[in-house]
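W.,

You were right to be curious about this one. When I first looked at the sequence I had no strong expectations either way, so I just let the prediction run and decided to look at it fresh. Below is the sequence, 186 residues in total, followed by the output.
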Amino acid sequence: MELSISVIQSKIYVVRGVKVMLDSDLAEMYETETGNLKRQVRRNMDRFPDDFMFVLTREEFNDLRRQFGDSRWGGTRYLPYAFTVHGVVMSSNVLLSKKAIDTSIKIVRAFNAMSDVLQNLPLPVDDIVELYGELKQLKQYIEEVFADQNDINEDTRMELELINRTLADLQSKTKWLDNPNKPHLN
């Protein structure tokens, strides 16, 4: 896999307001198994404080899956580790391979390039994160409104069906009464 900055940047996500890379993407770039990377990290947990690496919550993981499409994520049994730029550097140190060290240098450069871009945005990152949260709430509200609308529509459909049956009954009685050949009962 050619590791251009744009390829690396496509695997950097913002979670909890921090730019991170997931263990599976990192392992792929380091040309190792995700399980091997996680094993080495667990053996060296003292090198990975919370600002270097954290485990995604189920909700965070599901949000990423929805954002970027389920098929890309495959079936994972365990929640992924999310590595900040410092965690990326540390992970290459615990893997102790030339490939991991060279790759981590490229990744750090990609993180830095992204930081430069983000600093030049017209809105601060905090505002973008806030807007994302508001957008998420709005989407949830709209889904609830549509669900309520569907419930109302079902009730309305039932009422309209009842009205239509009543009108049909009245029309048949009117036709019977308006027929001059039928005897009228008075």
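Here's what jumped out at me. The first helix runs from residue 5 to 9. And, maybe more interesting for your project: The longest strand covers residues 18-22.

Coffee later to discuss?

I.
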